[in-house]
UniProtKB/TrEMBL annotation, chains A, B, C, D, E, F:
Name listed for the protein in its UniProt record: Cyclic pyranopterin monophosphate synthase
Domain Molybdopterin cofactor biosynthesis C (MoaC): 15-150
Alphabetized InterPro entries for the sequence: MoaC, MoaC_bact/euk, MoaC_sf, MoCo_biosynth_MoaA/MoaC, Mopterin_CF_biosynth-C_dom
Top-level taxon of origin: Bacteria
Active site (catalytic residues): 128
Keyword terms of this UniProt record: Lyase, Molybdenum cofactor biosynthesis
PANTHER family the record matches: CYCLIC PYRANOPTERIN MONOPHOSPHATE SYNTHASE (PTHR22960:SF29), MOLYBDOPTERIN COFACTOR SYNTHESIS PROTEIN A (PTHR22960)
Pfam families given in the database record: MoaC (PF01967)
Source organism (scientific name): Candidatus Acetatifactor stercoripullorum
CDD domains the UniProt entry points to: MoaC_PE
GO term, biological process aspect, one: Mo-molybdopterin cofactor biosynthetic process
Length: 161, 161, 161, 161, 161, 161
């Protein structure tokens, strides 16, 4: 089963052997959004500027989760990440908050799962902190933006247009 | 800031005091999807039936992540969950896999974050196991389906129609 | 060895049996301080109000560490805490930041270690975030303030005067 | 905000990018103390020699906590430490136990937080194991002793005299 | 598939629903052994009495691992254990060390996996600490000794004679 | 105490200093077995082929536990493993399941504890999933098979014949 690299020839799950891959600088960026009610949107927007800092807490959650991706995703390698950042954009027209997570590593395998896990934890934390106001929020559009540094080359998500 | 219960009156983040809330039976169900390429879809579908069991691994990931929600989402209470299940549906027409996570607890606070975290980890694991075939997969539509057992009453997500 | 309850009669470490103790409401509060340079003090004070929120990050660290006290302190019982808060006071005259952690539980054993661990992690996080400015900071005065709810009765630390 | 390296130019918390820093041998040593009652002091002193080994348990706690510093302090990098030791000194004249933690790493960033976290966990464990005898113990004087191996050069804490 | 309770009717792994089971006092005891060389046996025996305390470290490892059984064994419930002890017996005639782990809980499901996991971690720690002397050590005879408190009644392992 | 490398000259436990050891490719393989009843054996055998996949779940458990060996065994170094696999063999004549765990690393210290911990967690998971059918299962014969890549040279367990 060519494409499913997380299985051996008998179909059993494995943590893929990357021992012989070269150490290179690697980076990945992923993003995702949460769609919220008008009331929640205003609370987040105001909270950021003044008090009740939803995004500050979500940022810490995303960074901490990225570091333990290997403990959440079964076949991910444990990786000593050298950088993690989380950035948020408030999108007024769609009443949504977009999160972007960027991760870096000097190592033998890519960090895209770390970026995706960081985004997911940040968005889940926003949900958690605002759920008393709105239970209908939806997390959406979690995907890889960019990936560089491995044998498979530079990946840049095609623009939707 | 009335709606944001995770902050005290000064705007500081807190793990909300639920000591005085009654112990009741609580449940929550959440779902979400991952949209994949035709090639990935077939690999998952065949793998499930025969070998290379992507969904079996994703199910374990979701169950284990639900148990440590409190260690991923900063202000969640540590909860001794009494049930976690993850179910998948393959949706051929949209080339997507839907995950549903159901959690239960006899306790003082709800388990919706546990259900949402279980769904997220299961979908991320599918991404991880199939990413060598397709880096353009997208995780979407993560939301609460149902919640029962707390003071705020029974929540059932309104049908989209 | 009467006083050392964490050992059995042969002197071996044990996680004390609390199965037969009654479930009661328990709380504990602990505090501690970090003494910093004038430059760090100003950076924290301004950061809190405007940007670079040292204390917001330290608060999250303290809450999350309190939840996993049982995984840090070998003989502590795993406890499903029902409340954790961290509060900071900036003390201009001594150039120090004081942290107070309050924890609650409806359970069979006390939560003083959770309060003390929350304080310690919060202060260590302040150190981490400011260490590029000053490596001579000192963490001090970590102690229990109050404890209520167990068989040993109400403990209130005697005033130093 | 020059000194606060854990924030980006917008004031948001980040896990600092160390990808481009050279791999060098790094070490750090930190210390701290716990002041106890005469009764506790004697119990620890005798326990060490004969049975009821408080310090042996505290040493293991400190070593294990140093290894997971990155999971306790939000913006610390995950680091594959190559050495951790904890040493204790009983100081009869002040009725206190001093802990020193030394950590080493061949890597891209320093290990002072690991040394400080190891000391803190060791001292908290002493508190835990002796708290049935004395709730008034105080943890104090946690600070960095020495740090070597990074760009910022050798740091040796100035003598108090 | 009647006997395999960790699967639903479709054969999918689940964390079994125990929400409706009564809270009762539960205990379990498990044991296991490690067979070592004469040289290792003597080192452990002398170490216990004087210094180089292999068994003290292994005891802490077993207690801490029992507490996180739910994070090691995928379908185990998270349980707030109320007691964990580890006891060792040195068996000169077979050159082996036997470990017994006893766990208790007031809860809705049994603690036999916690007792078995505690034993396993304690024996692995002995292996780790002595492996420089002998790589041929073997861990054996890990089994349940006793279990009480659930619907399935009292289990006492039949004597081998 | 020559052979016990996990203690310093005073007999205190340490995480051994490996900073100055060279980075080399290292591998280790370990195995172990669980003896089960005829009924359990058939359930596992059929489950593997069709549904109720005991071994698939146990494989994930073993891989994930190997990654956190450093968090289970107190004096193990945290290691960014580059490969983990778990393989099972059903042995009809002895009614047992044998697990083999292979781990690799490019690093400064060996990975035998990771292989042994992976085996132990996999076997414990089999016990967990089948315990409703048979509480008399026994885990046995956990030992190192092979180890390569360090200063101590290639170790291959002598054949029993």
């Amino acid at each position: 089963m060519s494409g499913l690299t997380h299985f051996d020839e008998k179909g059993n799950a494995v943590m893929v052997d990357v021992t012989d891959k070269p150490v290179t600088d690697r980076m990945a960026a992923a993003c995702g959004s949460i769609r919220v009610s008008r009331e929640v949107f205003e609370a987040i927007k105001n909270g950021t500027a003044k008090k009740g800092d939803v995004l500050g807490t979500a940022r810490i959650a995303g960074i901490m989760a990225a570091k333990k991706t290997w403990d959440i995703i079964p076949l991910c390698h444990p990786l000593p990440l050298t950088k993690v950042t989380i950035d948020f954009t408030l999108e007024e027209e769609t009443l949504s908050v977009e999160a972007v997570c960027t991760a870096r590593l000097s190592g033998r395998t890519g960090v895209e799962m770390e970026a995706l896990t960081g985004v997911s934890a940040a968005l889940l934390t926003i949900y958690d902190m605002c759920k008393a106001m709105d239970r209908g929020m939806e997390i959406e559009k979690i995907h890889l933006l960019e990936k560089a540094g491995g044998k498979s080359g530079h990946y840049l998500r095609p623009s939707p247009f």
